Amino acid sequence: MTEAQKKANKKWDSQNMTVLGCKVTKDKAKAFRDACAALGVIPNQILKEVIDRTIAEATNKNTGA
Prior knowledge:
mainly alpha; 3 helices
């Protein structure tokens, strides 16, 4: 990836992306990472799926679906 591409990606990310976070104990974070590894997924993938599912459930609830 060229420096220009990196710069463009960084600019797009800064305009369109944000980081969500929550505090958990170190033991719980390790257990979550270990569980994800056992499932063959990365933690970020699981978190994004939960976000998408929560949005869909809230949308369905608000539309009466």
